[in-house]
Design brief:
This protein is mainly alpha-helical. The chain is built from 17 helices and two strands. It has one domain.
């Protein structure tokens, strides 16, 4: 009998097993009772177990006292911000703004550009002034601030970076203060040369009397409005609390915003970026792609082109008084070559004539910059 004749028995076809449908199918009564996919319960349990284990590991590293203190500090500042009457306390509000400038210069011009990067020299009078400005800001003690920032520059965006931005925005902004330090941060911190800071008598005095100085500067900033124009203690405290929280978040924004959101006109191979908002908040610290490319520059940015940099102008003013000297900066030629061969093409003056110029992986400029970076790693300028 021919195999395909009408009377021949049907050939058995191999039936392939159906794969579970993505969604359940409806029967004629519109009930989702057929072909319900099997849920991978074991995998879901494994995911839950992994998440629980990660939380248990993280919980051991949380510094709960810091979490509570930082949270309460921000809640109190928010309450004061929403309840104080600004129109009736203009002088006290102006005083708080003056202190913001005062403390901002202590952090940016003192702890950062002078003591961390040694980008200029300051005489004893200026160092004392910068120390007072810094201590009024209420940051960590000066020695630890400088050490952590030097580690940050030398091991940026690694586990040794105290506020590694690759661990997320929240961690780089404030979360790093709520957790115990990564072991690499501690190990690399011990390898940083801090001899210049240890031998600075102004820094030694600041750290030796840190608590007392912080109490005195706090009483001074709150007491001036009370005794000079009869402000009440509540509003004087509220404005200084808001000022303090602003100082903290402005400084933290350099670690978070200026490492995540912005352009890289000077070095596209690193994470730090140019962020105009951060520059306004910190009086010139937001030009961070430039700063990490040329960390020894006292300006921490190019001057001009609408780049706000109050700290650089104040340093120059003190240089005119003879209090600051040896202001360091890279040559304009080196900056231009770096822009052309290392930048991402967003600098206003960059002119790329060919794709080979844009790459520049084996260019002389790359070699020059590599040599400079190597030299910086062996110096106090980081």
């Amino acid at each position: 009998m021919p195999p395909n004749s009408p009377d021949s028995p049907p050939i058995c076809e191999e039936k392939k097993p159906k794969s579970p449908p993505k969604y359940a199918e409806l029967d004629e009564n519109n009930n989702a009772e057929k072909d319900i996919p099997i849920v991978d319960v074991e995998r879901q349990i494994q995911v839950v177990d992994d998440s629980t284990q990660q939380w248990l590991i993280l919980r051991k590293d949380i510094k709960w006292l810091n979490v509570i203190a930082i949270t309460l500090l921000h809640l109190m500042a928010l309450y004061g911000l929403l309840t104080v009457s600004y129109s009736q306390h203009k002088r006290t509000m102006t005083w708080a703004f003056v202190i913001v400038i005062f403390t901002g210069f202590g952090v940016t011009g003192g702890a950062h550009r002078l003591w961390t990067h040694r980008s200029y020299k300051a005489n004893a009078r200026m160092r004392v002034l910068l120390m007072i400005c810094f201590i009024t800001a209420g940051m960590n003690n000066l020695y630890h601030w400088v050490r952590d920032h030097r580690v940050h520059h030398k091991y940026s965006e690694t586990d040794a970076d105290p506020h590694n931005s690759r661990r997320g925005f929240f961690f780089s902004h404030v979360g790093w203060l709520m957790l115990k330090k990564h072991p690499d941060v501690k190990a690399k911190g011990q390898s940083i040369d801090m001899s210049d800071i240890v031998n600075d008598p102004v820094v030694a005095f600041c750290d030796r009397h840190n608590l007392l100085l912080r109490i005195l500067t706090t009483l001074f900033t709150i007491g001036v409005p009370v005794y000079c124009w009869n402000e009440d203690w509540y509003h004087s405290f509220a404005f200084q609390l808001f000022r303090y929280v602003y100082d903290l978040n402005a400084t933290w924004s350099v670690n978070s915003l200026a490492h995540i959101y912005g352009d890289k006109p000077y070095n596209r191979k690193i994470d730090p970026v140019e962020n105009r908002l951060v520059s306004w908040l910190t009086f010139g610290e937001g030009w961070h792609n430039y700063h990490h490319t040329f960390p020894w520059d006292y300006r921490a940015a190019e001057i001009g082109g609408g780049r706000f940099n109050l700290t650089a102008r104040v340093i120059e003013w003190f240089a005119g008084l003879g209090w600051a000297s040896d202001l360091r900066e890279p040559s304009p030629a080196l900056v231009r070559r770096t822009i052309a061969h290392r930048g991402d093409g967003t600098h206003p003056c960059v002119l790329r004539q060919s794709s080979s110029t844009a790459g520049g992986g084996s260019s002389v400029a790359d070699d020059v910059l590599d040599n400079l970076e190597s030299a910086i790693g062996k110096s106090h300028f980081f």
